Amino acid sequence: MKYTILVNEGPYQHQASDSAIQFIRAALEKGHEIFRVFFYHDGVNNGTRLTVPPADDRLIQKAWSELAEKHGLDLVICIAAAQRRGIMDADEAKRQGMDANNIAPGFRISGLGQLVEGGIQSDRLVVFGD
Amino acid sequence: MTTKNFLFVNRKAPYGTVYALESLEVVLISAAFEQNVSLAFIDDGVYQITKGQNSKGIGMKNFSPTFRALGDYDITKLYVSSESLAERGLTVDDLMELTYEDADDDYAEKPSIILVDAKGMAAMMAEQEVILSF
């Protein structure tokens, strides 16, 4: 089955990201396809590479980047939600005149149309949030 | 492009968190993709379409007028939970008059709000293909 995943909450504050990662791992293991993972609301905060959790805690952003690298996952951050919350790639930082970017490897920034397209193209859209 | 039945479930109050505002942003985008879009208002979500909202005192934008534009985007089915209204001491008279012009009926103005109980809400949800819950 083909899935699109929507993550609506930030890492650590909420378990949604952990649950989404576990769901995706299990789905891939069973031979399902992940069409896209879309990050919305505070979910965009999954895509900053500047998180430094304590040494005995899990590394949520790294888990995403590793999943993307290993399975070619399409991790898409909503641009409107990202702009509100300070998540930027190099192009966006340049366009907005900012002195830094913080996007993590494997993530890309795009529009909400990518979420709607995911709903249209997939057999199931699964929402992880509050 | 394939047309699917999209349902946006709005469960949160319009202010206090950003869910309602950002949900409406997805709703408008999905209309641009020419999908068959419905909205549901459940729990505190019913407050999103109450009339006479004034958010000046909290320094936030009152985005409720945007709901009036949904008819122009062919989003004409707004299901409201009758139980959620009753639990909050609200009636349909406390909601904005949201309407659309029916192209199949000489552009007659018709109400977009459909009051349903939990059973009706469940039956409507069973007909959906993509459900996004905010």
Beta content of chain A comes to 15-25%
Number of helices of chain A: 5
Instruction: Please identify the structural class of chain B as seen in this structure.
Output: alpha/beta
Any low-confidence stretches of chain B, pLDDT <50, length ≥5? Answer: none
Q: Largest inter-chain interface? A: A-B, 20 and 19 residues
Shape label of chain B:
globular
CA distance, first residue to last residue of chain B? 25 Å
**Helix share of residues of chain B?**
10-25%
What is the C-alpha radius of gyration of chain B, as a whole number of Å?
A: 14 Å
Strand order of the largest sheet of chain A: 4-3-2-1-5
* CATH homologous superfamily classification of chain B: DsrEFH-like
Structural class designation of chain A: alpha/beta
Order of helices and strands of chain B: EHEHEHEEEHE
Element order of chain A: H for helix, E for strand: EHEHEHHEHE
CATH topology of chain A: Hypothetical Protein Ychn, Chain: A
Largest sheet of chain A: 5 strands, parallel
The CATH architecture of chain B comes to 3-Layer(aba) Sandwich
Arrangement of strands in the largest sheet of chain B = 6-3-2-1-7
Mean pLDDT figure of chain B: 96
Helical residue percent of chain A?
Answer: 25-40%
The major sheet of chain B is characterized as: 5 strands, parallel
